Amino acid sequence: LEVEGAPPKVCFPQHFMFGVATAAYQIEGAWNVSGKGESIWDRYTHRHPERIFDHSSGDVAADSYHQLREDVRLLVELGVQHYRFSISWPRILPMGLSNDINEDGIRYYSELIDELRAHRIEPTVTMYHWDLPQSLQDLGGWTNPIIADYFLDYARVLFDHFGDRVKVWFTFNEPLSFCHDGYGGLDAPGANSSGFEAYLCGHNVLRAHGYTYRLYQQSYRHHQQGVVGIALDFAWLEPATTSEGDQRAAETARQFRFGWFAHPIFSSEGDYPPIMRVRIDEISKRQHFPRSRLPTFTPEEVALIRGSSDFMGLNHYTTYLIAQGDGKIYPQPSFNTDMGVVTTQKQEWPKSNSTWLRVVPWGFRRALNYIKQKYNNPPVFVTENGISLERSNRDVRRVGYMASYLSAMYAAMSDGCDVRGYTYWSLIDNFEWRRGFSERFGLYDVDYSSASRKRTPRMSANYFSKLARTRCLPDSWN
Ligand code: GBH
After folding, report:
1. Which of 15, 146, 283, 298 has an alpha carbon 20 to 30 Å from 404's alpha carbon atom?
2. Cα 223 to middle of ligand 1, angstroms
3. What ipTM did this prediction achieve?
4. Ligand 1 pocket, residue 233 CB under 6 Å
């Protein structure tokens, strides 16, 4: 019934999927239980508590390893269509290699998948959300080319054990984050050579992704009938001014931060973005390196990786302003000086409880339109979007964030962007990497002082359940 004067209801298509996301290390705990091997995040938090804001670790986290049924109960309460979680590589393969499979790890994820399916919640599974087996890090981790083979072996184990029931796979979560921050001194494994190791990491991640996609196509797709994609992080990057220099800088930044992975996989040409190739080759030369710090794909690898995704997973939280850099060549190689731009945020954009995250919903619409235009309108599955706030269950601002970002996404869909799903980060409060437990993104509060890590719904959980059940933006907030 259309009431005159009432704003039209914003409703998403009938098969649009609403869900929530988590990641293994951030929620599971049980870090050394039932045969699980050590991950780089176990090692990093144990050896360098000073690098974690509150000196905490994911040893117990939200205890989801022991709270599987409780987590599924929350998902049922929310009425979501899907749940995006990640599998811990060292829980499945304690030493990283497929000669030794940890049966208890298989059992845990099998139970989770079965519980979800029993409640008609689609499991959408990330194979790698940053918790590399430490034993593989000891071989050089993502900088050693052999890791692409080991990842493929791991992927085969996952397809063999879970592929009968899991139909949506993401190989990687945010290679930009774990290659840049992991090898740039901020996150595990704590290396500090972003202009060097980060590119090796990205290179091998892209190779691993390509192999995995082709393996699925050749050996699994026919009988398992699923899809394989990747989740990329794309904050919108807006020119700081209308000057030509800033506009060029913004496009360079988009190519470095997003095109680094999107271009090889989603563009019709494949390979690294030309601007990345040109800048890093040139700067490497001026730094007297005998070869570019950005590795080169063989033509076979370019072809392997090009088109290796059935859809694009998109993590989007915020927007930055990009201005032209000083144009200098610095002696110390780094990703940021290779990119050569100045990144800021506007002071008047509303803050969150994370330094990097301000509320800029219009950036979401622009990011989606950029993807549509650059990569021939691929199907997009929003794999993360969310906000951290001070601990409170009356999280009015979280509801406001979701409402404004969902409206922007709806506008992008009206522009013709092919968005198929939306996933809120996160189901529950969790271990926020180097920020420890100090940042809370959950629809459910987690009480870290209770043994069972008691979960309590926030106002936003109620809002999200209305959204997921009706597929329309709720007009009342509680
Ligand atoms: C997501 O990344 C992650 O996928 C998820 O695991 C995490 O819980 C969620 O964010 C919320 O934090 O400190 O200034 O150097 C979002 C992209 C990339 C945002 C790294 C923070 C570090 C900024 N993130 N970035 S800074």
Report:
1. 15
2. 36
3. 0.95
4. yes
